[in-house]
Amino acid sequence: MADTIPNIIVPAETVVDIYADAGVIAAGISAGDKIRVKMIGGGEAKLYAGATLTGEPTNAEGFYPIYGREDRINDLGDAGAFIWSDHGCTINIEVA
């Protein structure tokens, strides 16, 4: 198992670029790598895969919901990985 990457704090109503997080970069993970996103504790968020995201993803863009203590794995080769939470949450990622 690789060293654990520091948790990522997702502020309320803020787009967070998961691949651009300092802990993710330091771990050598790059855009397009397959990752597992794990929700730490309670919370609710929307995961989006694509090149950019400027606000809350809607049904028009598509998204994957993630709830407390769940995890999701993205697809290898995704252009980007973003998360949005109405109330904020904490996640951790690892290479899948």
What does it look like?
With 96 residues, the chain is mainly β. The termini are close together. Helices cover 5% and strands 36% of the residues. The strands form two sheets. A four-stranded antiparallel sheet has the order 1-8-3-6, with no helix packed on it. The chain has a four-stranded antiparallel sheet with strand order 2-7-4-5, with no helix packed on it. The longest helix has 5 residues. It contains one helix and eight strands, in the order E-E-H-E-E-E-E-E-E. It has a single domain, classed as Jelly Rolls (Sandwich), CATH 2.60.120.
Give the SSE order as H and E letters: EEHEEEEEE
Strand order of the largest sheet: 1-8-3-6
CATH architecture: Sandwich
Strand content: 35-45%
CATH topology: Jelly Rolls
Termini separation? 11 Å
Global mean pLDDT: 95
Number of strands: 8
CATH class: Mainly Beta
Structural shape: globular
Low-confidence stretches: none
How many domains in all? 1
**How large is the radius of gyration?**
12 Å
Largest sheet: 4 strands, antiparallel
Helix content estimate: under 10%
Overall structural class, as computed from helix and strand content, comes to mainly beta
So how many helices? 1
